Amino acid sequence: MSKTAFLIIDVQYDFLPPSGSLAVPDGEAILPVIHDLLDQSKWDWSVIVASQDYHPQNHISFASNHSPHKPFEKMTLTDARGTSYEQALWPDHCIQDTRGTQLEAKLVEDLKTWGDKVKLARKGTHEKLEAYSAFEGYITSFQTPDEPTFEQTSADPGKTVLPKQSPLTIYLREKGIEKVVIVGLATDFCVLQTALSAISASFDTLVLGPGIRGISPEDTHKAMQRIESLGGTVVDKGKENWTDIVKQWMK
Ligand SMILES: [Zn+2]
């Protein structure tokens, strides 16, 4: 059996109804699915990585830092690498030291049962870099995470790091991982970009429909098509026998 990592993307209060500042519609529906996937009597993950959007208050993606622009507008910005790009502006979310950035409490309890098989991937810590993919984050202890360093918050970030050379890829390769199963929020942004990075880093990649939700139905559909067209495996949201499908795929 090849080694599989379980990647749980951004299951944080600010992305969850009812009170998240950037709540993903129906986002709470993924919680029982993830709970099941963390049941050690049913699943045997070699590694689990939970990603955490972890922004400073002055983050480049916040509409509040580009007044008079409003959340969900798009605007052209230049990031810390001097790259010009189109940013979707967001409401303030997942700010360090707020409840909104915390992982959902039951998920935290479930993750604790896996001990040091669990790592945290913190991303979006640099004030002038957007980071949707978990492969753009730094890897740290889940139980006692490191705060971001100066390099990870405001220094010149240097060249773009390709997914193949990213901290998460290096960690997964060290652990002999060949396959990744991805769940979390939101399908059309951080789940999509994490899946694209995983495929680009040559991991066999499965995105589990019942364990993800998106912001826009149209973009969510496009995201799934894109993942499949690049060689990823997508399990449809409606598949009731997803457990069997995933177990078969992991063999
Ligand atoms: Zn963010």
Automatic annotation (TrEMBL):
Pfam families: Isochorismatase (PF00857). One of its GO terms (biological process) is pyridine nucleotide biosynthetic process. InterPro entries: Isochorismatase-like_dom (IPR000868), Isochorismatase-like_sf (IPR036380), Isochorismatase_Nicotinamidase (IPR052347). The keyword Hydrolase applies. Pathway: Cofactor biosynthesis; nicotinate biosynthesis; nicotinate from nicotinamide: step 1/1. Its EC number is 3.5.1.19. GO terms for molecular function: metal ion binding; nicotinamidase activity. Keywords: Hydrolase, Metal-binding, Pyridine nucleotide biosynthesis. The keyword Hydrolase applies. Residues 4-236 form the Isochorismatase-like domain. It is an enzyme of class 3 (hydrolase). Belongs to the isochorismatase family. This is nicotinamidase.
